[in-house]
Write a structure and sequence with these properties.
The protein is mainly alpha-helical. The chain is built from five helices and no strands. The protein has one domain. Helix 1 crosses helix 4, helix 1 runs antiparallel to helix 5 and helix 4 crosses helix 5.
Length: about 90
């Protein structure tokens, strides 16, 4: 089940990246909260998980934005990413 969720979240990211520049969803994807947490450690948010996965794979937001613009390249990227993630879970 987690592989399906993982794949769908990356497909959604590609969908949002291809949206119009003034889209609220696109703005939400890039949004960074300004307030700092008080006396708590930083919680692992969805965005931090995505950024961590990108860092592990040596990708940047700019790279995935360029890749997402081409749907065929994006589908291949998501498939490779999902295969890699499922292999990592098996270990």
């Amino acid at each position: 089940m987690s592989t399906i969720t993982h794949k769908r979240s990356w497909k959604w990211i590609g969908h949002v990246i291809r949206m119009e520049t003034n889209s609220f969803m696109k703005a939400a994807l890039r949004w960074t909260p300004e307030d700092k947490r008080k006396h708590e450690r930083h919680k692992m948010t969805w965005r931090r998980i995505v950024e961590l996965e990108l860092k592990i794979m040596n990708y940047s937001w700019n790279t995935i934005q360029r890749t997402a613009e081409n749907r065929e390249e994006w589908c291949a990227f998501v498939a490779a990413l999902s295969a890699r993630a499922s292999q990592a879970r098996e270990i």
